[in-house]
Amino acid sequence: MRMNLIVGLMVLCGLQAAQGASFDCGKASNFAERTICTVESLSLIDDQLASIYQESLLYSSDQEALRQEQRDWLRSRDACEADAICLQREMSDRHIALLGIVQQQGEDQQRVAPAVSTQSSSHSLSPATAVIEQPLVNPPGHNVTTQDLIPESNSSQLGSLAAEPIIHTAAYVPPMRGSDSPVPNFDVPIEATSNGNDQSMLLKLALKLTAVALLLIVLVSIWLHHDGRLTIYSDYTDAAYTSAAPLIGLLVYWLASWLEVPEAPAKITGIVVFAGLMVQVVKSTYQQNGMSGRFVLALVTKMAVIGVYYIIMAVLLAGMCSNGRKKGESQRAYEARCRREAREARAGMVAVTTGFVFLSGWICRDKQFTDFGRYLKP
């Protein structure tokens, strides 16, 4: 009697799950990196993307092009400022792109690899499995068992392996192009974004309500001012002093920083100088209106007008070429865009300053400058 004994040699591989992002979270410097470090699922995905990228780089025929593509993607990912959906989409698109690169590398290797002839078999065998066939002759009167075919030195080891549970592990196979297999969707947990979205909506609503309230106060104050029942600015000196107070505080801070004063003391110095100047503004407003509701309306109007002016100026200054190079933008185009944005910002600053000066002069009671010492006297 002939028997075929197939002995399978199985390899148990432990797959170690990613435990964190592919970079040092202690050095996270933008929204994308901080979100990846905070959201566990994105952290694991980032680690997987880094592993696939390193594998692609190892077998790539043009490593420099692949590195440049990775740098472009990192810039595109970092451009997702305060937008978790954009970050999720960028990571999903990069996952698809890397899988395509890995698949293409596999196809290229298959085309150049020499053909290897194999024996015909009714079963497809993986490289991790070995099949050994031996014709065995059963001696008369003796029934051959599996235990008889195993050496005594290995019987105890095979017995212990048989007692252990068999863990089947599958190698990673990238999806074929054109197949119907869905690309994994990396969803950011709802808990990680819902709180931030709610807080952002509440903050926007509060800012809008505050802006509407300030606008109403300014309009009412201007109407009362021209009706003679309230004084916003007594004269041009009062308007100039009030408008220059924040600028003087900033100049003191910059001067202290230039003189190598530490950051915290420099800020405190600027704030103290600004607060001292504002004491005179409050005193002058009180002298013109007395202790009444008109005093509060006039003071709030002053603060609102100069506050809006300085906020607009800060936004225009910060917006000059602050987005960095866009994806696919050349250095020459980037520099031209920066020059254009700088010209537009300067034009906007001139227009806003002109409007601010005109409004400040319009709400002055006396259309003239008075002696500065007289303005400061108690």
Automatic annotation (TrEMBL):
InterPro entries: LprI-like_N, Lysozyme_Inhibitor_LprI. Residues 30-84 form the Lysozyme inhibitor LprI-like N-terminal domain. The chain crosses the membrane at residues 205-224, 236-256, 268-286, 295-318, 345-364. Keywords: Membrane, Signal, Transmembrane, Transmembrane helix. It holds the Pfam family LprI. This is DUF1311 domain-containing protein. Residues 1-20 form the signal peptide. One of its GO terms (cellular component) is extracellular region.
